[in-house]
């Protein structure tokens, strides 16, 4: 089937009461590992590319790698999503490349500016039938660098924001952060906020910074010469709870990076004579597959690929015109 819009994917997830993993991709092995998991588990999947990923792949490579993934897996519903789009210009580039969903992340601006920038993107993207994720509140990590402080999403503001912006989904800040260092001690997440916001906005919610940073993945990196400090990630049980409360899209990048790095290090450590990239990228691809397959089971999306009758961006254009 062709790439599907995020709108459909998250609507199906809502119907089925599950979450869909949104996995960051930058190269062929990551895409293949993720698609192998989706195929085996018959799961819908979201492939997402950051601005860094677009730059790294020089746009065209990413476009055709994803096209290959779709062609090789015709029975799997796949969304291609722009992660952390920073401007209308980036959004336009993604839509030109064939993305079926974009995120506009203007969450580091003040509320009114966030509304204005996000609304502008919604108006543009919906003309093409492309879904839009906007964000309110700030996470730690990359967003903290910009904002300086971490601001959890306020339910009153969320209600007003969604009504004025008209986005299809909302990324919320409930205490997670990007990267491998999320919590010093026990993970603290404001799951009650998810429940409250979900009740108020009535659109699917998105959880960024949702990697679990499993100890075994960090240990695997460190066992073969790596040096990563162990800290707590987002417990899978908390994600499951968040899904029960209305989170439908779960962003995972760091866990994939850890899984691949561990596999590459292990191969090169155990067989220092190897220099064929296939010898270490092959195991890295398998490590992505194992991680993603586990997450598809954890988030409940496994087995749901068959539920989808794909809708097109043309259908979505008509939908937005009616709204
Ligand atoms: O949220 C950010 C993602 O982990 C992507 O990271 O900008 O280094 O590609 P990146
Ligand atoms: P992690 O760093 O927790 O994997 O989060 C990724 C993310 O939110 C991408 O947008
Ligand atoms: Zn993110």
Report on this model:
The protein is an alpha/beta fold and 323 residues long. It has a single domain, classed as TIM Barrel (Alpha-Beta Barrel). It is built from 14 helices and 8 strands. An 8-stranded parallel barrel has the order 1-2-3-4-5-6-7-8, surrounded by 9 helices. The longest helix is centred in the C-terminal third of the chain and has 23 residues. The structure holds glyceraldehyde-3-phosphate (G3H), 1,3-dihydroxyacetonephosphate and zinc ion. Glyceraldehyde-3-phosphate binds next to helix 3 and strand 3.
What tags apply to this protein structure?
single chain; about 325 residues; alpha/beta; TIM Barrel; binds 1,3-dihydroxyacetonephosphate
Q: SS-based structural class?
A: alpha/beta
How many strand elements? 8
Total domains: 1
Identify the strand order in the major beta sheet. 1-2-3-4-5-6-7-8
* Radius of gyration over C-alpha positions, nearest whole angstrom: 19 Å
User: Tell me about the biggest sheet?
Assistant: 8 strands, parallel, barrel
Helix content: 40-55%
């Amino acid at each position: 089937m062709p790439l599907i819009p995020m709108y459909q994917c998250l609507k199906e997830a809502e119907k089925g009461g599950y979450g869909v993993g949104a996995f960051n991709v930058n190269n062929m092995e990551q895409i293949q590992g993720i698609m192998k998991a989706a195929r085996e588990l018959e799961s819908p999947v979201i492939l997402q590319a950051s601005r860094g990923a677009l730059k790294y792949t020089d746009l065209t490579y990413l476009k055709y790698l994803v096209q290959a993934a779709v062609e090789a897996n015709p029975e799997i519903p796949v969304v291609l999503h722009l992660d952390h789009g920073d401007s209308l210009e980036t959004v336009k580039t993604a839509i030109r490349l064939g993305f079926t969903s974009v995120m506009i992340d203007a969450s580091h601006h003040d509320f009114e500016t966030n509304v204005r920038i996000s609304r502008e993107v919604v108006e543009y993207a919906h003309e093409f039938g492309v879904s839009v994720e906007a964000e309110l509140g700030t996470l730690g990590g990359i967003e903290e660098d910009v904002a300086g402080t971490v601001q959890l999403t306020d339910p009153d503001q969320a209600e007003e924001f969604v009504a004025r912006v008209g986005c299809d989904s909302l990324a919320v800040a409930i205490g997670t952060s990007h990267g491998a260092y999320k919590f010093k001690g026990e993970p603290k997440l404001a799951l009650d906020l998810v429940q409250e916001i979900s009740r108020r906005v009535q659109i699917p919610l998105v959880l960024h910074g949702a990697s679990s940073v499993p100890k075994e993945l960090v240990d695997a990196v460190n066992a073969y010469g790596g040096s990563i400090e162990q800290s707590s990630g987002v417990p899978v049980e908390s994600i499951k709870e968040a899904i029960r409360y209305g989170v439908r899209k779960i962003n995972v990048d760091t866990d994939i990076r850890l899984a691949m790095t561990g596999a590459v290090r292990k191969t090169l450590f155990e067989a220092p004579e190897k220099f064929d990239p296939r010898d270490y990228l092959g195991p890295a691809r398998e490590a992505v597959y194992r991680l993603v397959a586990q997450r598809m089971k954890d988030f409940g999306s496994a087995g749901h690929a068959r539920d989808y009758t794909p809708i097109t961006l043309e259908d979505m254009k008509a939908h937005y015109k009616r709204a």
